[in-house]
Amino acid sequence: MRILIKNGLVIDPVKQSREIRNIYIENGIFVSGNGFVTDREIDAEGKAVMPGLIDAHCHLREPGFEYREDIVSGTRSAARGGFTTIACMPNTSPVCDNAAIVEYIIHKAEEQGSCRVLPIGAVTKGQKGSELAEIGLMAEAGIVAVSDDGRPVEQSDMMRKAMIYANQFGLRVISHCEDMSLADGHMNEGIVSTELGLKGIPAAAEEIMVARDIILSEYLNIPIHLAHLSTARSIDLVRMAKDRGVPVTCETCPHYFTLNEEAVRGFNTMAKMNPPLRPESDREAIIAGLVDGTIDIIATDHAPHHADEKEIEFALANNGIVGFETAFALAYTWLVRSGRMSLEKMLAKFTTDPAKILGQKLGTIDSGSPADLIIADLENSFVFDKKQIVGKAKNTPYDGFELYGKIVMTVQGGKIRYEA
How distant, in Å, are the alpha carbons of 55, 88, 118, 123, 163 from that of 166? Predict the structure, then answer.
């Protein structure tokens, strides 16, 4: 199909520019448009046209937990949120620790999915931390990184071996930074946890492992990527490491710069996540880290759960929230409309920067690139309604929030995957 998207404000995160111009798509790629005869014209006047979003950290739950989410429902939700590429974590059942499961995920996404899916393989077999997974065979099958996300790689020697081995295949280890000996709790350890009578998780549980992984990266001179950072000290550690030239990258998630631990009051299980929501000072530090470039990317950590796993006693409820359909709007509302960041810089953290970390030639609107783009209404607010989520799970703390940045169309590989 030949598509012309006209009159839109095109935001380019590579050139850090914006201009009203036409976009041409043919055979699934962006083209120059000379002598172009269209099959469909889309008038994007008054809307922003941007590269498709890339999520470097999500959970699709398939295989094994399809009652929470599956590849079909998860990618449909991702497309509605503007994501054209997502990288899914391996904590499935069975664990994605071998080539057969990698191939299954890729094949099903290509056949039935609504966006591109890039599997992340496990670091260790069964995510048990005792033996390296078949990283080389998974690399041949198509993984883009390795991680034991959901659990840390607790043994430093195992992490060292994983970094060395994965690096031979051009892959990064994505580290879930958590000292499990300190993390036996239900929310951030502090005043709120004390008042609610809930056992807390100290910030040090994250920060100790951040420090360890930075030390390993510096010692080995091998890149590492730190997942879902949530505290001011974690960001300071990364900032100092980058100043020394350590090849470390990191991410945060929208919930860590839009919410703080106060959201847990009332024993709100929709605000229960791992790492937990932190105090307001940490939330502000996360924003500062995004603004100064210490934090490389924004990822969703989309973690769908069945209602029965959330609508129960707080201490028993599962950690995690869904994030595909709110991520862009939350970032635009909190970071751009607040004046803290330009749209171009914020967009890079959803596009070109995760593409680099995952080793993918994606996230641009250059001629010859895969035709992945979104159209968004940046001017009119909307009230987010969790009942309209198209994924299976509805576990979100953002129901009823007034947001800006509604996705009205998602195009992936030249195909319209979502249209409002």
Answer: 21, 17, 16, 9, 5
Mean pLDDT of 115-144: 98
Residue 263's CB is within 10 A of a number of other CB atoms, namely: 18
346 token code pair? 């914020």
Read off the pLDDT band of 35 (50, 70, 90): confident
User: What are the pLDDT digits (tens) for 174-231?
Assistant: 999 999 999 999 999 999 999 999 999 999 999 999 999 999 999 999 999 999 999 9
According to the model, what pLDDT value does residue 167 have?
Answer: 98
Share of the chain above pLDDT 70, in %: 100
54 closest CA partner among 291, 409, 360: 360
385 lies in some domain: no
Helix axes 204-220, 232-243, angle to 10 degrees: 10
The number of folded domains in the chain is 1
C-alpha angle 327/77/224, rounded to 5°? 55
3-state SS, residue 350: coil
Q: What is the CATH number of the domain that holds 184?
A: 3.20.20.140
Of all residues in the chain, the percent with pLDDT exceeding 90 is 98
DSSP secondary-structure letter at 370? B
| Structural domain contains residue 420 | no
> Residue 91 contacts by C-beta under 8 Å, 6 or more apart in sequence?
59, 122, 127, 148, 149, 150, 151
Q: Where are the alpha helices (DSSP H) in 51-143?
A: 71-80, 99-112, 135-141
Q: Is residue 72 part of a domain?
A: yes
Candidates 72, 105, 112, 69; CA nearest to 90 is: 105
pTM: 0.97
Token pair listed for 205: 């549980």
Rounded Cα–Cα distance for residues 3 and 26 (Å): 7
Catalytic annotation, pick one of 70, 282, 296, 301:
301
Give the C-alpha separation, 328 to 343, whole Å. Answer: 11
* CA–CA separation, 5 and 10 (whole Å): 10
Helix axes 156-167, 204-220, angle to 10 degrees: 50
Please say if 301 is a catalytic residue: yes
Q: Which domain holds residue 305?
A: 52-364
Give burial (CB, 10 Å; 0-12/13-18/19+) of 127.
buried
- State the pLDDT at residue 1: 84
User: Does some domain include residue 67?
Assistant: yes
Distance of alpha carbon 354 from alpha carbon 297, whole angstroms:
6
Alpha helices, DSSP H, located in 117-167: 135-141, 156-167
